[in-house]
Structure formats: C-alpha cells, structure tokens
Amino acid sequence: MQWYEDDTFWVDFAGALFSPGRQAEARRWVRTSPLLRLPAGATVLDLGCGPGTYLVPLATGGARVTGVDLSAVLLDQARTAAEAAGATVRLVRADMRTFVEPDTYDLVVSMYTSFGYFTDPAQNQLVLHNVRRSLVPGGRLLLDLFSKEVFARWAGTPKVVDVDGGTLFMRDTILDDWTRFRSDWTLVRGDTARHGHFEQFVYSAAEIRAMLAAAGFTGIRCFGGLAGEPYDHRATRLVVEATRAGQPEVTP
Ligand SMILES: C[S@@+](CC[C@H](N)C(=O)[O-])C[C@H]1O[C@@H](n2cnc3c(N)ncnc32)[C@H](O)[C@@H]1O
C-alpha cells in the first residue's frame, strides 16, 4: 500500500493536517481570496478534498461543488461537515489519476499540497492532463503547493509543534537531488507514539509551470498565497493559477 492510500495516516495525523485553525483559515480564504472569487452557481471540483476543508465553504458560498478523494473515511467526514453547515455537495470516491469529467468545471482546486504524490512523474503529469480535460474552456485550475523554494527555507532542521493534545516531531529528508522528499512524523500523546511518513515530489515554480504548459494550460501565474501576493522571497506557499484555453473537446 502507498502511504496516501492508508486511511489511518490521514486519521491519526488529522490534528495536524486538518486542525480547526486550518478549517477557519480556509473559510476566511473562500470569503476573501481574489483567486477564489466565483460567479454564483459556478461549478467547482475540489481534487483531494479531504474532510471538506475548502469544499464546504465553497459550497456554502454558492458554488456547485464536487469533492473527489481516495479516502472513504475523509469523504465521510466531508459529508458530515457539509450536513452540519447545511451545504449541498457531491462527493466521489476516486483516484485523481483516473477521474475525468470532460468540459464540466469552471474551477478545479487542489489545496494544501495534494499534488505530486505519485513516484512515477508521468502519473503526476496525467493528473494535470485530467484536470485540463475536466475544465470548461476558460476554466481555471488553482494548485496550492509547498514549493521547492519555500521548502528550502523550511527543511534542514527537525520541527516540533503542539497539536491537539500532543506533540508532533517532523523531520524531512531530501531525495533524488531535490526532486522529492520524505517527511517522517512522530506524534506523541501521553505514553503513546504514532509514527508515519510520506514521500512526494517537491516542485519549483519553473518546474510546475513547465508541467502545466505540457498539459495544455495557458495563462499560468504564480502567487505567494491565496491573497494573490507575489511569489517572491517572502512567499510561504506557491499558489499557481492556470487556464484551459480553447474550444470544448470534440468526442469522436
Ligand atoms: C494533504 S490532504 C489535503 C486535503 C484538503 N485538500 C485540505 O485542504 O485539507 C491530501 C488529500 O488528497 C487525498 N488523496 C491522496 N491520494 C489521492 C488520490 N490518488 N486520488 C484522490 N485523492 C487522493 C487524500 O486522501 C487527502 O484527502
């Protein structure tokens, strides 16, 4: 089993990954981000929606939202969160490598570094190709990543943070000449310790631009966050906007 297929990873580290603070921050970004501004009734795909962090506020904001995720447990949490918020959402359990709904979405979002999980680079490229096909002409992709430039300032020293009644120790290892990285996490709560790790690609802005161009996107713009700030030495995220140009695809 690959690490991202393991539901226990997402559940056991939920306090760090999907904290109430992150949920509140997502609600704020959906209200205020110029990159997430949408006409009423816009169709949105949240690829790797997790427990509904962005999915639910996007739906309560008036978008018609589909959430796709591989994790049944996280999809259940997204359903519960949507019900609690009185939001209507469509949830699909699927792998982003195969999920395509041609000419359907005005916006596709991939939030909180939900991209670059597959060891074979062609599979990550395939995800971008699928996204372009699922967008309507003129539709946009927003990719929110922990980029290579940002990661270079972060990696190097182990990190310790307080989470959800415990302490999380994080140690990163760069793999394959800065192509990928491995992160080892240990969550200590009282007398118990839960260890987990994940590995993924870490992309520079130039690398992700090239991948998006190869997938047929145009209008590629890089930002340092969801406020639309510049992607410069102060950036704490890499948020990339890319547009599907052209006419609807013709199916023979
Ligand atoms: C870091 S979490 C981010 C979740 C959410 N976007 C957020 O902002 O909280 C990554 C998500 O991608 C999902 N995921 C991992 N591999 C996937 C795949 N092959 N296809 C679809 N979803 C996947 C995970 O289950 C998880 O919900």
Automatic annotation (TrEMBL):
GO BP annotation list: methylation
All residue ranges annotated as the Methyltransferase domain in the record: 44-139
Gene Ontology molecular function: any one: methyltransferase activity
Keywords from the named record: Methyltransferase, Transferase
InterPro entries: Methyltransf_25 (IPR041698), Methyltransf_Superfamily (IPR050508), SAM-dependent_MTases_sf (IPR029063)
PANTHER family cross-referenced by the UniProt entry: METHYLTRANSFERASE, N6-ADENOSINE-METHYLTRANSFERASE TMT1A
Entry protein name: Class I SAM-dependent methyltransferase
Lineage, top ranks: Bacteria, Bacillati, Actinomycetota, Actinomycetes, Micromonosporales
